Amino acid sequence: MQTVVVTGASGGIGTRLRKLLPAVYPQIRWSDLVPPADLAAHERFIKADLSVASEVERAVDGAQGIVHLGGFSTEGPWETILQANIVGCYNLFEAARRRGVERVVFASSNHAIGFYPRRRRIGVEAPVRPDSRYGVSKAFGEALAALYAYKHGLRVTSIRIGNVTDVPADERRLSIWLKPEDLVQLIRIGLEHPDIRCEIFYGSSDNARGWWDNAAAFRLGYRPQGRSEEHRAEALAAQAELAPDPVGDWYQGGAYCSDEFDDGVADAPV
């Protein structure tokens, strides 16, 4: 990788990666709607609105790899999700094809499979069960990634990110926590491993309470260093302060499942 473009540079994950990725890839082009507030003089930034195809194409021109974090990063109105996460994702992959980009790492989300019960362990072959419009957009991105891999030859990796923080914040996040350095590992596999064609990984660290079978990532060399149980006491103490959420506490997607919940399946067994 000579040049890597990272979209969503001003977001929470992008901000963390700006501290970690330069040690791996010396030529990184950071992109977002607005520059990061703490952008350093040596960092290269290019403004791009994902919903504008010409701006996306200009941002990725000359790159060998893309880490696509950009878009609307939580639940929102349909029109917002449509423009940022669906139109924007299409523009990103099409720009990558047109400009000869070799690899794309797509930041998918656990919310693409949020309506699986917490007691069920699932692999990447499980059908998507999005818990929100946001989750639908991530499922769309995974499908788009497969299209561009098998039809147009891009090498693509979708990472169903759990929760990227320094420490897990509550009981649910003990199961889905992703240490930032472990995310860098997964990104490097996506950008560098010779056997990548079209893969889906779960973005989680070494979590004893985890719900996901991450065999695909382990097969390609992933060795997570973060262990959520080391933060168990603090996370459970924080959980005790939260109000009960019968729907959200049953499903892997948490509050994304209970938000706007209306006569659905409150406690699916599988």
Structure description:
There is one protein chain. Helix content is 34%, strand content 15%. It has 270 residues and is of the alpha/beta class. The strands form 2 sheets. Strands 3-2-1-4-5-6-9 form a 7-stranded parallel beta sheet, sandwiched between helices. The longest helix has 21 residues, at 78-98. It is globular. The model has no long low-confidence stretch (mean pLDDT 97).
Secondary structure: elements and pairs:
Elements lengths: L3 E4 L4 H9 L7 E5 L11 E4 L5 H8 L4 E4 L9 H21 L4 E7 L23 H18 L4 E7 L1 E2 L6 H6 E2 L1 H13 L5 E6 L11 H5 L12 H9 L14 H4 L12
Parallel strand pairs: 1-2, 1-4, 2-3, 4-5, 5-6, 6-9, 7-8
Helix pairs in contact: 2-3, 3-4
The rounded Rg comes to 18 Å
Average of the residue pLDDT scores: 97
By oligomeric state, this entry counts as: single chain
Give the overall shape: globular
Order of helices and strands: EHEEHEHEHEEHEHEHHH
Structural class: alpha/beta
Strand order across the largest sheet? 3-2-1-4-5-6-9
Helix content: 25-40%
Approximately how much beta-strand content do the residues carry? Answer: 15-25%
CA-CA gap between termini: 42 Å
Largest sheet: 7 strands, parallel
